[in-house]
Amino acid sequence: MLDIVQYIPGKRKQASSGWISFNGPCCTHNGESMDKRQRGGLLSSPDGWSYHCFNCNFTASFILGRNLSFKARKFLTWLNVPQEEIERVNLESLKHRSIAGLLDDRQRTAAAIQGIHFEECDIGGAEFVTAHHTEVWKYLRRRLAPLDYPFMVSATPFARAGVIIPFTYDNTVVGCTTRFLDDRNPRWVNDFQPGYVFGTDLQHADWQHVIVTEGIFDALCISGLALMHNTVSDAQARLIRNLGKEITVVPDQDRAGMELVDRAIELGWAVSMPHWEDCKDVNDAVIKYGKLATLLTIMQSRETSKIKIELRKRQIVKKIS
Question: Mean pLDDT, to the nearest integer, of 7-11?
Answer without folding.
Answer: 84
